[in-house]
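At this stage, I put together one protein's amino acid sequence and its backbone structure tokens, which the following lines show:
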Amino acid sequence: MIKQELTQKLQQKLSPLQIQTIKLIELPVQELEQRIRKEMEENPVLDDDVPNDKEDEDGPREVSLSNINEDDPIPSYRLHVNNYGKDERPQYNTFSVKESFTQSLMDQLGFRNLSKHQYDIAAFIIGSLDDDGYLRRDIDSLVDDLAFRENIETTPEEVEDMLKVIQTFEPSGVGARNLRECLLIQLKTMEQTKVVKDAEAILDRYFQEFSNRHFQKIMNALGMSESSLKAAMGKILKLNPSPGGQIDDSYNDQAQQIVPDFKLDLEDGELKLSMPRFSIPEIHVNKKYADILMDAANSSEREKKEAATFVKQKLDSAKWFVEALKQRHNTLMSTMQAIVDYQHDYFMDGDESHLRPMVLKDIAEKTGFDISTISRVVNSKYIETHFGIFPLKYFFSEGLENQDGDEVSTRELKKVLQECVDAEDKHKPLTDDQLVDVMTQKGYKVARRTIAKYRDQLGIPKARLRKQL
């Protein structure tokens, strides 16, 4: 028996303009510029040349796009986006990440007098380093991989020799196989003073005791005074445990720049929000293609009609794109203004204790946009303020209640926790239970597990590992 059922479904279909807008909202300003360039290359109707005719110069910079419709295909020449301009704004400084880690090591390798065989082995080792600059794989595995993947026959001794070459590169400590070796490599590049030699002896012979803060055992074993141990410890603590972390390796080893999407200035006690306009072309309809439509409007010639149809399709695409750019601008400005209003006290001075708990829903309610739209705006966007450059995600955090019942942000709690640790007696560092008591005295109700979680997120070791002489 075949049973038939009739069901009704309500589906919302996005218009081409909505789809275009959603895609553009997600893009940070640099990618937006590339997207506009791509659109102009693919759509011959769009042109970023400044019109030279007197009529266009004197005419308004923004014209309603409703002029382009099915009944009247002849557009205005001045199809502009007035939220971007050609003026370069040098005050909007780019934020540069550092040189590619892999590329830096390969550049240094190129200066070494090596045979092609040695160079290929060393290059393979460099490619095997992790993001922190460590070699986490054993030598025998590298020998096997070189044979199977690169068809290079070698020996563990040869690989070890090339690894030692890499360990002389900058940043110092790169190519180490563990933390102990990383720190020792750095010490060996320094002037061999007594303090440096003491530090080497501690790491070389008593690394486990050093890690566990068994200071008395180290002093007894090395016949070292407390002052000498303090000096050696100070030298060790200044070493870099993550040499690869100095250099960013994102985006396929290309050095990147972050251009802030927003700029917030404090002028006469008032916050002024703006969006950078440099490197974004001004868009208008190319006069040549508008002329095609005008010529075809009163013509019966088939070829001209076909050309007009083609241009009309491109004009529709241009209309959607330009309107999407405007909607993107309005959406981003409305969202960022809502964030600035919500976090007004924080943006006045940059004090993290003034940062209110804020989630995507809060801004969605203030703007009337969907939470998904707010998420797209916030993702990968940056703002330049008078106290630094920040990703928009930085201003969002969950909240907890203090003893007065007021909600405080997790950032404020972390800031207070960091201050408690900074102020503790390093000879007797505070345990997590003691930190709970101190936070309670300061008016913050925080559970022990929360303290442990925040401490870990802040990179603060346990009390035992914070102990100093």
In short: The radius of gyration is 31 Å.
